């Protein structure tokens, strides 16, 4: 009987892990994204988006690149508060995004850090139909006053 109980417990643990893993794999926002600078067309960084235990999403910078002809930036010298002078690698770049109740491909109520200028903006994002492109919009006040960039999932 003890062997059956241990086997049942192990089976439950493994199945719960696989269900959690499948949920993360099936979440189209979770994963690594290549950012594309809207002004130059170059990829400036790679961001890994994760879903936190509270159901919100955050993106952490995992790789940076310089634009040809410019120096690679390593530290967020213009970032506000506790983020000031932190290395770009590991820096929270977006946070607080929540899935929209009306559209599963839209994410709202987020914050977006402009690591070059050091400002934090309100943010929203929308996945395309294939889930391979993410349009991220940072704005002040209303979303009409803002800037959009497209990220590519890999």
TrEMBL record:
InterPro entries linked to this entry: DUF2147
Claim: Signal is one of the keywords in the record: yes
Transmembrane regions listed in the UniProt entry: none
DUF2147 domain residues: 31-152
Domain of life: Bacteria
Keyword Transmembrane helix on entry: no
Keywords: Signal
Database matches in PANTHER family: BLL5882 PROTEIN (PTHR36919:SF3), BLR1215 PROTEIN (PTHR36919)
Protein name according to UniProt: Signal peptidase
